[in-house]
Structures are given as structure tokens and as C-alpha cells.
Design goal:
This protein folds into two domains: 2-117, no CATH class; 130-235, Rossmann fold. The chain has 13 helices and eight strands. It is of the alpha/beta class. Helices cover 51% and strands 11% of the residues. The chain is globular and about 55 Å long. Helix 5 (77-91) packs antiparallel against helix 6. It has helices spanning 9-13, 16-28, 44-48, 52-65, 77-91, 97-106, 110-117, 137-143, 148-154, 177-180, 182-198, 209-222, 231-235; strands at 2-5, 32-34, 72-74, 107-109, 130-133, 160-161, 203-206, 227-230.
Length: 241
């Protein structure tokens, strides 16, 4: 089976190793990978900032970049959730009505794809550390992700998963929210990091690198004994193709 790879802006520009690790895992599962090098942003940032015309233009390109009727897999619940939930608002009853419906049907967040499409929970990874999992708002509320990331982490050899309190509470990133409401965003991020510290975990793990970037800024500024990792980076640990 061939799958298309969607690499969001955050991954492409700041965390490219996460995209490579996702590809590494998919290849291990025997999948053929197709990456359209012309792909760009899905339009989420423009949409959330109120620039719907610009977001629609970017969305049109996104739809044309994934014209094939095959799975599209991306390491970001936020971006994939945006395509699933808001392209219907942008392209309903337009010339791309049928095309956006096909993209919506095909696109999956990485952990959801592994657990619910590929029916895999054990990648054969080894990661001998204590981690706590951060539920991003986009993953739990926009995308509807449930226990898939935790199921994958529980099968990682040597990994100890501990839950932090108030897992349902936002970390404060929220995309442009962190820019427009810096003080509130920072306070929320500090609380999330404090909750993670209380667990004794060495790493905060999540499906969304944007949230991890926000929390890592606080960790580094305060020189705290914590690190952050995308779930794909954890699952790619301890083995080679």
C-alpha cells in the first residue's frame, strides 16, 4: 500500500526529524511512501487569524497537492484536524466540493492511522525513560483522538508512562493565541509544565510539536529538568530499518 505524507509547517521548519521518524516507522510497517515536494501549509494559521480568503487559496493548493485516492498521514493532530473540520466550511458547494470530501476521508493523524487503520500498537521501540503524555486541545477536541497515543506508548519497551493532573487543560499555545495573549499563554504553559514536573517524568510527549515547542520554551528559560518529544520520535527509538 502506498500512503501520501503530509508534513506540516512546524515539522518542516523546526522539527524535520519528527517527519523523518514518521516515515521510518511507516516504512517498517511495509508501506510505500509518496511525498509531494510541492506541498505547503494547509492554511490553518491564516484561517485562525481571520484571513479566510487566503486560507481558502492555500486550501485549494493543498487539495490539488493530494489528488490521489489513498491515505494521507501527518504527524500533527492540529493540522489534520483543521483539514477535516474546516475545509468543509471553506469548500462546501464549490468547484472543489467532491475533491475536499475525498481529502477529508483520506487524511489521518499518525497515531490514529497506526492504531485504527494499520491495527498496530507495538512498533518494537525501546525508550528507557519515564514520560508523561500531553493531550493537545486539537488532538482531543478538534480531531477526537482518544487513547491511541497512550496505547502506542504503553507498548514501548522500558518506557514508564505516568499521567499528569489536569490532562484536559490547554497548555496555552493555541497558535496565534500565544502571540495575542502572551501573559495568559505563558501562565497556562507554566502550569502545564509544573504538572508534568510533579509526575517525576523526564519527558513530555505529545502528538503536536507546536504545543511541545511552547512548553519547551518555558522549560529552557527556567532551566528545568524536562525534555519534550513527539510521539513519533519515541516510537522510532531503539531500532533501525
Amino acid at each position: 500500500m502506498t500512503v501520501d505524507i503530509f508534513i506540516p509547517c512546524f515539522i518542516d521548519q523546526i522539527f524535520p526529524e519528527t517527519g523523518m521518524n514518521m516515515v521510518k516507522i511507516l516504512k517498517k510497517l511495509g508501506l510505500d511512501i509518496h511525498y509531494n515536494e510541492n506541498q505547503t501549509c494547509c492554511g490553518q494559521m491564516a484561517f485562525n487569524s481571520g484571513y479566510w480568503d487566503e486560507a481558502k487559496e492555500m486550501g485549494e493548493k493543498f487539495i490539488h497537492d493530494f489528488p490521489n485516492d489513498r491515505y494521507i498521514v501527518g504527524p500533527s493532530a492540529s493540522c489534520v484536524g483543521f483539514v477535516r473540520n474546516y475545509y468543509p466550511k471553506l469548500f462546501f458547494n464549490t468547484a472543489l466540493h467532491n475533491e475536499f470530501k475525498q481529502v477529508k476521508k483520506n487524511i489521518f493523524e499518525f497515531t490514529d492511522f497506526l492504531v485504527n487503520v494499520m491495527k498496530v500498537t507495538d512498533i518494537g521501540a525501546t525508550f528507557e525513560h519515564t514520560v508523561t503524555y500531553h493531550d493537545s486541545c486539537a488532538a482531543s477536541r478538534e480531531y477526537g483522538l482518544k487513547n491511541e497515543p497512550r496505547e502506542l506508548l504503553k507498548h514501548v519497551k522500558g518506557l514508564k508512562l505516568v499521567e499528569m493532573k489536569d490532562t484536559h487543560v490547554c497548555c496555552g499555545f493555541g497558535g496565534t493565541f500565544s502571540v495575542k495573549h502572551e501573559a495568559i499563554s505563558t501562565a497556562m504553559g507554566e502550569q502545564k509544565v509544573e504538572n508534568a514536573l510533579e509526575t517525576g517524568a523526564e519527558y513530555i510527549v505529545s502528538t503536536d510539536s507546536s504545543c511541545l515547542m511552547h512548553q519547551n520554551g518555558i522549560i529552557q528559560k527556567q532551566k528545568l529538568p524536562l525534555k519534550v518529544l513527539h510521539v513519533a520520535d519515541v516510537l522510532a527509538s531503539g531500532w533501525e530499518l
